[in-house]
Known about the structure:
Layout: H1 2-42, H2 47-54, H3 60-80, H4 84-104, H5 110-124, H6 132-137
Helix pairs in contact: 1-3, 1-5, 2-3, 3-4, 4-5
Amino acid sequence: MAVRREGMKNLAVFTIRAATGFMLFYFHGLDKLKGAYGHFAHGSEWQFPEMLSGVGLPLATLLALYATFAEGIASLALGAGLWTRYAGAAITASMLGAIYFHMKTSSRPELAVLYGAIALLFAFVDPGRFSIDALRSGRGSRR
Length: 143
């Protein structure tokens, strides 16, 4: 019974981690990556830094690059369970900025709070057996 319970726990941890990481990437990070790529590779306008400076955030381009990294790259690492603690910490910091942005623009911060809370959890909690981190440490191959 304990083995089954452990397997179900690992499946639940995997589901939450993968869903959070891949949803954050698909719904938020991918557009940020496309915007940054278009700006730096083709000189097109990148509106994200302007949005950040519009709410009074300093170093808007640097913060935009950080948010793009966190939501566009660290989110994939979180979803896959690769460098999970670092990815969780990076996403948590980005979500604090997103919460601030939503509060300043009177828009709803619920998704940023939820993404941030789950990312914070994985900054401190083991990513589970179904993760690249577990495979790298030898824990993922156990039956």
